[in-house]
Amino acid sequence: MAGSEPPRELWEEMVTADRTLTGAQFQFSRTTTDARRAWLSRQLRGGDRPTALGYLATFSEDAYELLPDLLWLGLSHAWAGEVRNAIGRIPKAKLLPGLAELLPPLLDEADGDQDGYDDYATLLESVAAWYLLHVLCRRAEANPDPDVRDVGGSFAERYGALWQGK
Fold first, then answer.
1. Which residues are CB-contacts of 60 (< 8 A; sequence separation ≥ 6)?
2. By the 8 A CB rule, do 60 and 88 touch?
3. Model confidence over 32-69: pLDDT tens digits?
4. Of 118, 103, 105, 125, residue with least CA distance to 148
């Protein structure tokens, strides 16, 4: 069967499913804002995460309000890529101040956790939040844990020229 053309019926089934999903997402986007965001938050915290992340990647107007949930979920390597996609759709003018407010307490929680620092640094890298990445690197480099310091040094080596004006 390798190399043969897929059955037309299967393709049509996929097209129908895609149209159904798009229609359902649109209808969901028209529900009450507070109720929709509460529902999405519950899904991100332990419900149907793939559907919630898929929705936020398409209808991004709710992503900013769910940024705390997304940052929490982004620490899971299984969801990190999809979380970065959803966060990356937030307009930068809103995203950067939100990250600047939320990141310090999250780093307090991640203190001494190499993976936490690395995950947040990767997120900041993916949304080109260079100043915040600089802040994270400086904080990591001052951490007593050598693994956390390595995260800061590694990202500073790659991107330090961006915040040093070189």
1. 86, 89, 90
2. no
3. 999 999 999 999 999 899 999 999 998 888 999 999 99
4. 118
Cβ atoms of residues 100 and 133 within 8 Å: no
DSSP helix/strand/coil, 128: coil
159 near 125, Cβ under 8 Å? Answer: yes
Query: Alpha helix locations (H) across the chain?
Result: 8-29, 33-44, 49-58, 67-73, 80-88, 92-110, 114-126, 130-141, 146-163
Our measurement of the distance from residue 73's CA atom to the centroid of its chain's CA atoms, rounded to an integer in Å, reads 8
* 74 Cβ neighbours under 8 A, 6+ residues apart: 80, 83, 84, 87, 119, 120, 123
135: amino acid identity, one letter? V
Residue 61's contacts (CB-CB under 8 Å, 6 or more residues apart) are 29
Name the pTM for this structure: 0.84
Would you place residue 19 in the very low, low, confident or very high pLDDT band (cuts 50, 70, 90)?
A: very high
Tokens encoding 2: 């390798």
User: Tokens 């899904």, residue?
Assistant: 43
